[in-house]
Amino acid sequence: MTTVPQSVPREAARIRSMVDIYLSTARMAVASEFQYRTGHYFFLLGMIAEPVIYLVVWTTIADQQGGEVQGLSAGYFAAYYIVWTLVRNMNIVFGAPYWEYRIREGDLNRDLLRPVLPLHYDIAWFAGWKVVMIVLWLPIAFALSLVFDPTLSPRPAEIVTFAIAIWGAYLIRTMLQESLGMLCFWTTRGAAIFDLYMTVELLLSGRLVPLPLMPDWVQDISRFLPFQWAFYFPIESLVGDLSNQELVQGLFVQLLWILIGLAIFRVAWRSAIKRYSAVGG
Amino acid sequence: MAEHAVVVDRLEKVFDVPERDPGLVAATKGLFRRKTREVRAVDGISFTVDQGEVVGFLGPNGAGKTTTLKMLSGLLHPSGGEGRVLGFVPARRQREFLSRITLVMGNRNQLQWDLPALDSYELNRAIYRIPREEFAPLRDELIELLDIGDLVRKPVRQLSLGERMKAEIVGALLHKPRVLFLDEPTIGLDVTMQKRIRTFVADYNERYGATVLLTSHYMADVEALCKRVVVIHHGTILYDGVLSGLAETFAAYKTIGVALENGHADLSAYGEVIHRDGDWITLRVPKAETSAVTAKLLADEQVLDLNVEDPPIEDVIELVFAQEKPE
């Protein structure tokens, strides 16, 4: 007869409890964000201005160069930037500057009184927010598709990978931004560092241009940094022509960056919380 | 002897506060050399609170009350000394510890602003792992006790300050904390609402045997709830004892109320006349002279009624708070 260690049911209860916390928080986020649906729609409409500008520029260049830019067609650009809008939404997380606000306004006091790491609450809340945004995004994506005629014919494996990769992207960026946010425990002037980070991310993630259009050395560097795995890879998994092996590898690299980000966050959090001065009430 | 729920042993908190002179020159200097000043917010305080005891934690603004409560609830790491709550070291922030305490700050919102309080309560159920079969009856009981049945379905942002405070308190107690840190829970509320919350806290303490450490600038809160007070000023403890003993320790005078047959008599020779209401005259006399003045009054005047009292608690507290920081 085998005996089950006592820690197994305790661990199962802990996991059940975490799932309960995630679901309750996400449900609250959905309920709360739906109250601001009109505001979110305007936000989304404002946000598509950026990819539409990129799209118009690249389509024009492609037309002038006989229909392609370095092998990428106008239809590819259309697909890339339409999917871009969803991935960009998935990339919106509790950003580093929010930590500054959270500390200054005393909101962190409330979060710290709860017997749950604030990171869990942040992930769960914005996961709920994403659900709202995806629902609102669908008609916008449909309208953009009618206007720009994207070339998009993904295989089932690509669709499945994309569905996982956008959440992987969300978690990578959450971990990195939350880790960066820990700087707020040391300085009240983190804004300059956050801006620098955002600039590097903009260039190396595929947000500004698809990475194949960047110089080779930039592509080489970006392969070893987390940014493209939170932006270019999810888009490319649906729009590009990656093999099944490349898709699986991409998901593993995402997982690796999530774990690296989590480890950085945990180390930073342990030191940061000792420095917390609990201002703002 | 009752077990201590809270043990504070030479607890300290020192903040490094940046400071500079006004103006562009000082700002430029600050780029190269940052000046900071050490502020000892809590300076080696010690006290204990027994299980089930309700203690008033008094002091003027900036005395170190809230900093102490934040250290005891695990928000702040002490710079020195030690605090223990229910046997736990708060700074370690263990789940078991955080699930047994609550900190209610009168000026802070802990509920989700855009949603009805019921949604926030549901989240607390998940966070504190309250079994569903226990959660609903307790939630409904607390809602009924504070009479907010018709408010908990409204978005929190639409509640008045008093209504929101009551909803906050329900949310903070759903996990049946054994230690309550209440930081000015009645601040900004009208008299009726203050009274309601006082009654509720007393009821909760009696019903669940919870320990309460309460800060408040309203002496009515303290008088209604606390037999014992700890007075903190400039980060150090000035007094720890029964509320009525405060006047004994700090007030240098007593008041003598007297009614004379000749209501218009001039009593200024006996002490300072601080109030006259018809035939009733109130005198302020140095504490050491109270007996002598009383005897002289009874001997020399035709006294109809007389009583000797400590000054009102508000006046005593004012005296305590006016004390200068020791060099």
If you had to describe this structure to a student in words, what would you say it looks like?
- The complex is a heterodimer of chains A (281) and B (327).
- Chain A has 281 residues and is mainly α.
- Chain A has helices at residues 7-34, 37-47, 49-64, 74-90, 96-104, 107-113, 118-148, 156-181, 191-204, 216-223, 232-239, 244-275, and strands spanning 68-69, 72-73.
- Chain A has twelve helices and two strands; from the N terminus they run αααββααααααααα.
- Chain A has a two-stranded antiparallel sheet.
- In chain A, helix 2 (37-47) packs across helix 7 (118-148) and helix 4 packs antiparallel against helix 7 (118-148).
- The longest helix of chain A is centred in the C-terminal third of the chain and has 32 residues, at 244-275.
- The mean pLDDT of chain A is 88.
- Chain B is 34% helix and 30% strand.
- The model of chain B has no long low-confidence stretch (mean pLDDT 88).
- Chains A and B meet through helix 1 and helix 6 of A and helix 3, strand 5 and helix 4 of B.
Q: Report the portion of residues of chain A in β strands.
A: under 5%
Query: Low-confidence runs of chain A (pLDDT<50, min 5 residues)?
Result: none
- Range of helix content of chain A: over 70%
Tally of alpha and pi helices of chain A: 12
Q: Report on the biggest sheet of chain B.
A: 6 strands, mixed
